[in-house]
Design goal:
alpha/beta, Adenylosuccinate Synthetase, Chain A, domain 1, Adenylosuccinate Synthetase, Chain A, domain 3, ten-stranded mixed beta sheet, 20% strand
């Protein structure tokens, strides 16, 4: 039995969907534990190409039970649309489980997200406008409405009415927006309940039973370490914890049950939205990475800023997540580069530092100190064994492992499931 956490170790978009799709082949349970439909996992497998936002990436294996954990904020309309999309491709969602403790995104969350971002003006932080910040704010303020509430119509109406009294005053008095109708929202969500009620369960019990049986359990993170509200480039991040520790909280598993933590890194680095990125490339090299890597947000469609691998940030990710292994994706994107670089330190105010600063103003002033490697300039898409990679690519990967501080377990050399090199067994 193994409980494995897979998390993003950069600014998100590292290819977690592909890694989880590969690891899920040996998992009996795949549990999404954080984020909401602001996060997207792109998967290319024999069924086609999919951009999942809420359904765990193990859904393509009929032997795996997929669970949306209590740490996820779920828009029921988005979830139903995603389930319908999967069903239309012949992918069954009958065994999908939604934790009864997961908070629902309500219409007022989406409205407030967009109104708040507009009110920030030039100080906008680049949210996706999906209601993620407001729903997690409500969760902590004890204003949240959970999926379990849908199972009791009377109690749900009472709680919804109380929340709308508060939110409508905010919408009308502060933002000058129109109030939401209690009856309209109530009936809308009763429709969602009719579809989703069979999937709503106490997920913590299911997971505990699975661990007791000795089943392999894969915990699927969203976004990336550097977007975490505590350890990321605050406030330019997301609203739910995206580090490995959230795997325990967001799935309802004691931390002593977790055996391994796999951090997913690109062979370079990207970020979407506002906020600093020390190794960002604005010239032709960065554009080439974007074009070859198809670097556009899965959910937002926004172009991602691209840069050389940031080993300072990578070591920080190892520190705060306790990584036991690293998966390196998109190595093939660097195939055409005559020279490949990795940032091994920063210059900050005239001093060389080897740590990731906590203050956003310091991160913005950091200048990268690079180590250079000769490029391999050979297509990697058909390579399936580590030993068959070009020597220069192997040297680059071995150096990344040293810099990250964790062994490499998987290497991605293309989008498809089969374009994966297993260096070391995760399970």
């Amino acid at each position: 039995m193994s409980v494995v956490v897979a998390i993003g170790a950069q600014w998100g978009d590292e290819g977690k969907g592909k890694v989880i799709d590969v690891l899920a082949e040996q998992a009996k349970f795949v549990v999404r534990f954080s984020g909401g439909d602001n996060a997207g996992h792109t998967i290319v497998n024999p069924f086609g190409k999919f951009a999942l936002q809420l359904v765990p990436s193990g859904i393509f294996y009929p032997t795996a039970t997929c669970i949306i954990g209590n740490g996820v904020a779920v828009n029921p309309a988005v979830l139903i649309a995603e389930m319908d999309m999967l069903n239309s491709h012949g992918i069954a969602t009958d065994t999908l489980v939604i934790s009864d403790r997961a908070n629902m995104i309500m219409p007022y969350h989406v409205l407030l997200d967009r109104l708040e971002e507009q009110a920030r003006g030039g100080g906008a932080i680049g949210t996706t406008g999906k209601g993620i910040g407001p729903v997690f704010s409500d969760k902590l303020a004890r204003y949240g409405i959970r999926f379990g509430d849908l199972l009791d119509r009377t109690a749900f109406r009472e709680r919804l009415g109380a929340m709308l009294d508060i939110k409508n005053r905010l919408l009308t008095k502060v933002y000058g927006a129109e109030p939401l109708s209690l009856e309209g929202v109530y009936q809308q969500y009763l429709g969602y309940a009719e579809r989703l009620a069979p999937h709503i369960q106490d997920a913590t019990v299911l997971i505990d039973e699975a661990i007791a049986r000795g089943d392999n359990v894969l915990l699927e993170g969203a976004q990336g370490t550097l977007l975490d509200p505590d350890f990321g480039t605050y406030p330019y991040g997301t609203s739910s914890p995206s580090v490995a520790g959230q795997g325990s909280v967001g799935a309802g598993i004691g931390p002593t049950k977790i055996n391994r933590v796999i951090g997913v890194f690109k062979a370079y680095i990207t970020r979407v939205g506002a906020g600093p990125m020390p190794t960002v490339l604005t010239e032709a090299v960065g554009q080439a990475m974007r074009d070859r890597g198809h670097e556009f947000g899965t959910v937002s469609g926004r172009p991602r800023n691209c840069g050389w691998f940031d080993a300072v940030a990578a070591r920080y990710a190892t520190l705060v997540n306790g990584l036991t292994g690293a998966a390196i994706t998109k190595l093939d994107v660097l195939d055409t580069q005559p020279t490949v670089k990795a940032c091994v330190a920063y210059r900050l105010d005239g001093k060389t530092i080897d740590y990731f600063p906590s203050r956003i103003t310091d991160v913005a002033r950091c200048e990268p100190v690079y180590e250079e490697f000769p490029g391999w300039q050979t297509p990697l898409n058909d390579v399936r064994r580590f030993a068959d990679l070009p020597l220069k690519a192997r040297r680059y990967l071995r150096r990344l492992a040293e810099l990250i501080g964790a062994p490499i377990v998987l290497v991605g050399v293309g989008q498809e499931r089969r374009q994966t090199i297993e260096v070391k067994s995760v399970w």
